[in-house]
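W.,

You were right to be curious about this one. When I first looked at the sequence I had no strong expectations either way, so I just let the prediction run and decided to look at it fresh. Below is the sequence, 343 residues in total, followed by the output.
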Amino acid sequence: MSSAPPPIRDLLASAEWLAHRYDPGHDAFHFRAVPRARHADIPFLTDELLGPQEPLVLRRVDAMAQAPAPAPIHFLFHSAYCCSTLLAAAFDSPGVAMGLKEPVLLNDIVGWRHRDAKGAEVARVLDESLRLLARPFGPGEAVVVKPSNIVNPLIPAILGLRPEARALLLHAPLEAYLASIARKGMWGRLWVRDLFQKLMREGMLAPLGVAPDEYLGLTDIQVAALGWLAQHRQFQALTRQLGDRVATLDSENLVARPKEALAALARLFGLNMDSSLIDAIVTGPVFARDAKSGDAFADGQRARQARQDMDIHGDEVAKVAHWAGVLAGNAGIEMTLPRPLLG
């Protein structure tokens, strides 16, 4: 016979019970038991990777009546394929912070919003979801959330609801991003088209100067470039709206200067990470393996892969990058974002 679940108050006091999904049909949150060590084992907090387990379902009103006061919460927003999963994993530091990698709870809210949920209801559930995510594993820890980039249209709402939160806006340089998509073959090309559709629903493609009747004539890599530009434009606007609450970083600088990047992020987030802790993180397993597959990195592997990508796809990538640069100039999009994390 299985044991009874713990009382709601005890359950919600433990970060091991992850707020995993929101079901608007029943106005309920689903919780999954995810120990801290399990977070380190998987790249994303998806149903597939968490494995089979019956969720514990709580009515939203019951969950919020027993939810503890939230810990400090900060965010790693990104435009995909830019080492964001690695960076989130770097914040698994007991006593300091915990990184949550793409909690599906936030994706559910985006999907619900796309199904014509009312704005006030979305805002209320988003606020409560952030409170449930901001439950630390240990006393004094902050929570650093890396949402999926399909959550990016909600960034203004998220940071508006959490005025004390700070955020990094992380991206890959355009050509590196396009080459990465090309290397991933059919699945990468399908992914950028799915993202394109979601950005179109949000109205984020309209300012780029490509008419909707031209969309079907675009190549996959052009679609990828437009998605990158739309997100880059949003990040640029956020730097102007939010000032020193946000900073920007590209993946090449993160990989080249990981210790400086972590130290600067710790300052941005107000975390107590001294140089010895940062050294241990950068020289430890997080930076020594592929954040998604878990495979060990060989010395120089990332640079060799980048050169190989450009050897194979360089002609297409260069032509699309030039085309995207023209669109960016016409739309007033800066290819180098303001408010860099690293000087």
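Here's what jumped out at me. The radius of gyration is 20 Å. And, maybe more interesting for your project: Residues 254 and 261 are 6 Å apart (CA to CA).

Coffee later to discuss?

I.
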